[in-house]
Amino acid sequence: MDRIQAMQMFMRVAEAGSFVRAAETLSLPASTVTSTIKNLEKYLKVRLLNRTTRRVSLTPEGMQYLAQCREILALIEHSESTLSESVARPQGRLRVDMPAGIAHFIVMPHLPDFYRRYPDIYLMIGVSDRQVDLIQEGVDCVIRTGELNNSSLVARPLGHFRWVTCASPDYLREYGVPPSPEALSQHRAVHYFSGQARRADEFRFVRHGETFSVPVSGNAAVNETGLYIKMCLAGFGLAQLAENIVADHLQEGDWWKC
């Protein structure tokens, strides 16, 4: 027996003074309402209603139970309403961990709009690319790029990056423009390493739907996107980055896209 539903039916019967009228307001068969109230009385081991051929009236116990039902159902309605408002207007602390490149170049430009929409959120942004223990560190969500190695995590794709291979004009003037991805093995690159991607000595490409890697050599490796960008701009070598992260540099001519 659904006790909440039984309480609601009992209230309707008490207010209407009739099983038939209560059933009409609930759009239920009168037999359903009658059997539900009988089961409720059986469960409570007390008679709640006096029944006559013309009218239904409350027993003393029924009057007491009616008052309690009103309080309980009002509290439930208030709780549901409060919860709905909370969902409609999120609030509280939200701790997110993400790589530096995503934080600086993708998330940061959208933060003003985020706070206009969710002014009651206290946002904590951790910048890293390491393995995070969500429970131990109190992190609500982690944003990462690449393949998901831990299948025990609940993950959802947020989007896709288009990766571009970049070089500074000074570098290309000195070493020339690579005619193909395979030619990059004869060029110098700035390596990128992180806790999530240990290999830093290859660039990946997609050709005709197939992914392949090209080994690249170099004498410098970094683990922070901002420094990675500056090293490439300074002519230390080629770099492979998400296009939306370097779009401004490409547009302004600071880089060439290989």
UniProtKB/TrEMBL annotation:
Superkingdom to which the source organism belongs: Bacteria
UniProt name for this protein = Transcription regulator protein of MDR efflux pump cluster
CDD domains attached to this UniProt entry: PBP2_CrgA_like_3
Assigned protein family: Belongs to the LysR transcriptional regulatory family.
Q: Which UniProt keywords apply?
A: DNA-binding, Transcription, Transcription regulation
Residue span, HTH lysR-type domain: 1-59
Is Nucleotide-binding included in the keywords of this UniProt record?
A: no
Q: Which InterPro entries match?
A: LysR-type_TF_proteobact-type (IPR058163), LysR_HTH_N (IPR000847), LysR_subst-bd (IPR005119), WH-like_DNA-bd_sf (IPR036388), WH_DNA-bd_sf (IPR036390)
The organism's lineage is: Bacteria, Pseudomonadati, Pseudomonadota, Gammaproteobacteria, Enterobacterales
Per the record, the GO terms for biological process are: DNA-templated transcription
Give the molecular function GO annotations: DNA-binding transcription factor activity; sequence-specific DNA binding
Task: Note whether DNA-binding occurs among the keywords.
Answer: yes
Q: Please name the Pfam families in this protein's record.
A: HTH_1, LysR_substrate
